[in-house]
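Forum: Protein Structure Q&A
Topic: Joint prediction for protein chains with partners

I've read a bunch of threads here and the consensus seems to be that you should model interacting components together rather than docking separate models afterwards. I'd like to see that in practice. Below is the full input, 540 residues plus whatever partners are listed. Could one of the regulars post the assembled result?
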Amino acid sequence: MADALLANNIVKAFKKSRKEIKALKGISLRIKEGEIYGLLGPNGSGKSTFIRIASTLLIPDRGSISIFGYDSVSNSASVQRMINRVSVEASFFRKLSAVENLCFSAGLYGIPRREALKKINGLAERFGLDLKRLKDPLEDFSRGMQQKVAIVRAFMTEPKMLLLDEPTTGLDPRAKRDVQSLINDVKNTMNTTMLLTTHDMDEAEKLCDYVAIIHLGRIVASGRPSELKKQLLGKVDNPSFEDVFLEFTGMSIEEAEYQEVESA
Amino acid sequence: MSSQALARELRASWAFIERNFNFTKRYWKWELVFFAYTMANSVTMGFIGKGIEAFSGTKLDTSYLILYMLLGSILWGYLSILFEIVAETVAWERWEETIEYTFMAPVRRATHLLSTCGYAILYGILRSGLILVVVSVFFDLDLGRANFLSAAGILAVSSFSFVGLGIVAAVLPLISPEKGVQVVHIFQALLLMFSGVYYEIDVLPVWMQQVGKLSPATYALRGMRASILEGRTMPEMWNDVWPLILLGALLLPLGLMFFKRMEAWAKKRGVLKRSG
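Posted by a regular:
Agreed with the consensus. Here's the joint model:
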């Protein structure tokens, strides 16, 4: 399989109140075409910074990311045509309806109006959205429904690579299950490569073909979920993915989150 | 640019125009508030013109004064709309939390900004026209000498420079999420003061007159008054037309270039995101 994303020694630091925060300290990773790659880590570990670099919204201090062979900085226009994103916040014009928001997005990607409406209806039906409600303002939608509209927005442009930045965080259990099954459904029916960031261990194990654990801006472990768990055999009985995280970071996800917040 | 790429950019351009139209539709109550405010402001300016004769105690051409003040108010209203819509395009995206999605879309920044400008011009002309209609009910306006063709020419030429100025100002909310919009409004207020919206800039101290000469609004207001009040043609107003052409030719491409450069800076600093 060809490389969908190739990141080489990405370094990024931010200045905040005269203090330098090193968000990424040399991240290298390779995602193969058609794969769901999980970037697993606590809040503040650098996951979203990595996604924003891959989205062409952030320029790294050092290193490079190429998506299907195109550099995300020097050839950002080509990268932008191949990617789309679903982030933790659905991010819509709240007073506009779902259709108005989706038609705006379709226009930005050069999709003709008639084609866009056809895609919106098709995807909305497939993802279980009530077609009658698509004309309602987005502010009247539940968070789970907004996230489904965000998924429609992303798939409408038929991205070769989809960046999923904690798409289930903050959703109620039912909405979370719905979004996860959508991702699974897409994995089984479309050849979209996905980079999923999450701090939900079960989600990573359930959805991802390959995972990397990111802690304090560095990748501390990577491999197939089953392989990572296998490394714990003999140390832990019936290891869970929580145990994998504990083994490679030396702390639980909750402790790691506390540490990341403190160090920021 | 290939025809396919051109079609893509045109669709994106229409998407920005349509989205802004949807905003106007959805926020219609606020539109009504702003319209009432601008209309009241223009009518007030007209009455100030009418009242000057009683105030000064000398016989004056009241009709000329009313129209002088009204033109200042209405043209300033138009230029302000143009400037605000363009300058706040980034700020809006940040408030709505959509900035990351718009800036990661495969659209040329020139298409993004110029489409916003296109909508601002259409909206500005429509709103200013409506205000003119409402205001004309209050006053017996003498437009017998008006040269409307010249007035339209001045409006068109000045729009370019104000769009350029708006694009330069749009950089501020891009690079400073917390203070950018506030600085845009200070800049707008200073333009009002230096450009002779309700007076000739000759009444200003010399140093302020020098600053006023750099503002496109100074020439736009002078040109508009000359065409409506004195019926001058474009060649007769050349002294006001050429600075507008020059400022437009400089400010528009420079604004786009500056915006692109500062967008790259924002991407390095990590400020191109929903919240500051």
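Residues 23 and 52 of chain A are 12 Å apart (CA to CA).
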